[in-house]
# Entry
Amino acid sequence: MRDSCAVLLRARTRLRILPDNRGYTRACRRSSLGKRSGRWVALCAAFCSWANAPVLLAEPVDPVVNLELVTAAPTVDVGSLVEVQLLARAADSQDIPIVAVQALLNWDSDVLRLAGVIDNVTPDYEWFLSGFFNDIGTDNLNDGVTTAPMGLPFNDGDASFEALGQFPPAAWPVARPAGTRITTFVFEALRASSPTKIDIPLSAGEITTSAVFWGEGAPGVDILGDTSNVLITVTPEPSTLAMVMLGLAGSCRGRVRRGLRTK
# Structure
């Protein structure tokens, strides 16, 4: 009888064994499956408790959203602007509602200068607020933003970007498997360089972290999975490259002439 009392809630969840039904209420409150099938599971749990059998219950698994940086122009000339998109990509095959995104940025400020972001509205969503917020008094990653609520931080190689969704009854944004554009950063190429990295660190300073906040389940649940970087190669501007090539050609021609004279 005891063997027949083990209850398996088949969902995309982690499983744990409870010694009796005392943990049923706590587990099922966190499980959408438990909410839908609560009456059936409650009966099973009561029966199994009477039989003093273990109950196999489900613990929900939060979805995962990854943050990615992508660009259509991985190679640019000195003095040019390059656009880098921030994408939220659902790790599973379903859309995931989110309420807010915080993305830390790190880059080589000798090679690239953060020039700004392309407005608050993307083809995928219109954010309530988005940008580089004044964070004086925390980790001061957005040094240079001295007015409330937002501005452009100093080009010191790190910054913290935030995007806040619209308040209900407006719909939450969703992270799609194909990727949802959160915003577009604009960088200016300052000097020629081999591939230089712009990345999203998981944390910076003492308290600031990259995060993606879930639009369902418990409030404030961070469901960020992985982050990815983007590489930018900066080449000399064409006029400078042409002058270098002409100089090399002239130098080679002079050597040839000197060689002919010595013969």
Observations:
- The radius of gyration is 28 Å.
- The chain is about 20% helix and 35% strand.
- The helical segments are 24-29, 32-36, 38-50, 238-262.
